[in-house]
Design a protein that fits this description.
MetI-like fold
Length: about 550
């Protein structure tokens, strides 16, 4: 017999499912439709895909994307894993602040890192001028493949570090001591014992890095200089100033989605195949290392940290420097850049960023909490579909989702393009999977017997959820919401396609100022975004009671 309780849960499941069908299935379905139907006749055709693979100009962008992504992902692991291991196993002076600063280096969008490295190692960069003057060389800057890989590596290794650091928390130190007693060297223990045990976490981190790099638009657009990647090609085909081809752009989107899905399921398969269950009965201890080894450990950690923080330091420093024509810094101290951005031109990008971010986080928290609750407590066909559909935006790049939204919501009956609402929904949909997974993990730790006891005492299901379940979930939800907020305000890939003059955000403002060569204004905007992210991170530490971020 169907109870009122199950009926209410089922109704809520169908409402949430309708939301994801409208904002995920429907727009992405239109992308697939446009990619395989002829513009004039409406007949099924694969000409757009054939066009991509027939011309070297097009398919080399996919090769370029794989080359950049694979190299940057591997280098991120090469840096991130040793940093996590050294900080977990060795007593480093100021380790608490090192962890915070490593996370801060991850907060800014990659394209800001690209802009900062242009200021340092571009043709007229500070370091470039110094090198050319000292050694009499003609270094032309870090553009193309090398520059893109550098930016992505330094922006992505903190993510690997956070995942591996979290995995090392659950590593039983008695295994390491046993290997040490058998004569295994420190390096051999790391390669043969520790790395295999943290492989599932490493694979999860590498997938996130791969997807982040593969789908990023801003970095290759700013410093690619002819080294074109798939997101740049999609943007040019859909938003090009000279000519556009929306059906060809749709075919490109389908190719990217297929690649992303293959990688996602490959990672899931590898994680299941190489998963280990670890319980830290004797957690790793930080040991004081003396002599040259201790010096080298400190040099390694602080050297990596300084290089990783250089973009943020550069952005903040140059925001207070005067410019000649907006391009060349004259070395003088000034507040003119902030006057140009915060006062003279108004605060619309900043205000929009905060308002859209808050709106997106509200959607993320409300919908994410309900989806995780229903998935854990009400396993039905609608909730299983919810679980699958809610994870799909995790795979789809931001630029692809934005194009899908324009296909689906640029004409009646659902006309949303150009509105703040479509910006908010796109930001929320992109970050929803992280909160759902986090909330689902929390639900797994809450015994159903607690809720059943409240129901047996006469409490309604709504009251039980509101008074018992939600408060128990709240600490994790709040902490996850703050971290989601940091990623939401840094989003560029979807915003650069969806924005209008009235819905410009900070990331879009920074990008457009860089494109216009107004580097002083870009630095001021970037500083505001960086400081907002840092303050948000500090609030996360305060509310969560944590002293580090590990996943």
């Amino acid at each position: 017999m169907r109870t009122k309780k199950s009926g209410m849960r089922t109704s809520l499941s169908w409402i949430l499912l309708a939301f994801f069908v409208l904002f995920v299935v429907f727009p992405l379905g239109l992308v697939l439709y446009r990619s395989v139907f002829d513009v004039d006749s409406g007949a099924v055709t694969f000409d757009y895909f054939q066009q991509f693979f027939a011309k070297k100009y097009y398919w080399t962008t996919l090769v370029n994307s794989f080359a950049v992504t694979i190299v940057a992902t591997l280098l991120s692991a090469v840096i991130g894993v040793p940093v996590a291991y050294v900080l977990r196993s060795t007593r480093i002076a100021g380790a608490k602040w090192v962890n915070v600063l490593v996370v801060i280096s991850y907060l800014s969008p990659p394209f800001i890192g690209a802009y900062a490295w242009v200021q340092l190692l571009g043709r007229n960069g500070f370091i470039t001028k110094a090198l050319n003057g000292l050694f009499g060389v003609e270094f032309n800057g870090i553009y193309g493949f090398t520059g893109i890989v550098l930016v992505f590596t330094l922006q992505s290794f903190p993510l690997v570090y956070m995942y591996i650091s979290g995995a090392l928390k659950n590593l039983d130190n008695s295994l390491i001591e046993a290997a040490e007693s058998l004569g295994s060297s420190r390096f051999r223990r790391m390669i043969r014992l520790i790395v295999p045990l943290v492989t599932p976490s490493l694979l999860a981190a590498l997938l996130l890095v791969f997807m982040r790099v593969f789908s990023d638009f801003g970095t290759p657009m700013l410093i690619g200089e002819g080294y074109q990647t798939m997101p740049v090609l999609i943007y040019n085909e859909f938003m090009g100033e000279v000519s556009t081809n929306s059906h060809f752009a749709a075919a490109l989107c389908v190719i990217v989605i297929v690649v992303a899905m293959v990688l996602f399921f490959l990672q899931r398969w590898l994680s299941n195949r190489y998963s280990y269950s670890m319980t830290a009965l004797k957690p790793m201890e930080q040991k004081r290392v003396k002599g040259m080894r201790g010096v080298l450990a400190h040099v390694f950690i602080y050297g990596i940290l300084v290089v990783a923080l250089l973009p943020q330091i550069t952005v903040i420093a140059t925001s207070f420097m005067g410019t000649i024509g907006g391009v060349i810094y004259d070395g003088t101290f000034t507040l003119k850049n902030y006057e140009n951005t915060l006062l003279t031109k108004g605060n619309e990008p900043i205000l929009n960023t905060y308002l859209f971010g808050i709106g997106a986080i509200v959607l993320v928290v409300v919908i994410g909490t309900l989806v995780s609750y229903l998935s854990a407590r009400h396993k039905t066909i609608p909730t299983m579909l919810l679980d699958v559909l809610s994870m799909f935006p995790y795979i789809v790049p931001g630029s692809v989702l934005a194009i899908a939204f324009l296909y689906g919501f640029s004409s009646p009956p659902v006309l949303l393009s150009g509105t703040a609402f479509i910006m908010i929904v796109s930001l929320a949909i992109r970050r929803m999977p992280y909160t759902i997974r986090s909330a689902t993990a929390i639900m797994g730790q809450i015994s159903p017997s607690i809720e059943e006891a409240a129901l047996s005492l006469g409490a309604t299901e709504v009251r039980t959820f509101w008074k018992i379940t939600l408060p128990m979930m709240l600490p994790g939800i709040v902490a996850g919401a703050i971290m989601s907020w940091i990623t939401v305000i840094s989003e560029l890939s979807s915003s650069i396609i969806l924005y209008t003059a009235g819905t410009k955000t900070l990331t879009v403002a920074i990008y457009t100022e860089v494109i216009r060569s107004n580097f002083g204004n870009a630095a001021a905007y970037s500083t505001v975004l960086t400081l907002t992210s840092i303050i948000s991170l500090l609030i996360f530490f305060k509310l969560s009671g944590k002293e580090e971020v590990s996943i």
